[in-house]
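Review form for a predicted model. The reviewer records the input and the model, then writes brief findings.
Reviewer: anonymous (R2)
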Amino acid sequence: MLEEGKKAPLFTLKNQDGENVSLNDLKGKKIVLYFYPKDDTPGCTKEACNFRDEFPKFSGLDVVILGISPDSVESHKKFSSKYKLPFDLLSDENKEAVEKYGVWKEKNNYGKIYMGVERTTFVLDENLIVKKIFRKVKVDGHNEEIKHSLAS
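Model under review:
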């Protein structure tokens, strides 16, 4: 289980444009990695649009925001375009990052047991150290929690 104060696991994933994004290449910047279950579903859309709407405040903090889910590059492209998202969505179809970060979990929805992404946000410092982990994220008010953690 990944803990605060530990080095973030490295990965390279494709963004919505099919370009490789490597966590290691972002060293020197603060990073918000938010893992979410599925493109274009109500909670995930609300979360993405909240980041979009607050994006100017985050970019003022010199922060890179990355959304990660097991959806395909094509799915991310449609989702990003539909909601005009100003940050990268990374495709983790092989579940490399969701497993490294411990967010691929057994879930229970109305008695149906299945594997899926537990909505989780990781705030990384400039040295790729995990500064803060928000598990089982509730979308409402989450951006304020993240901004507070970046400011402290």
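Findings: The first helix runs from residue 42 to 59.
Further findings: The chain has one domain: 12-151.
Recommendation: see findings above.
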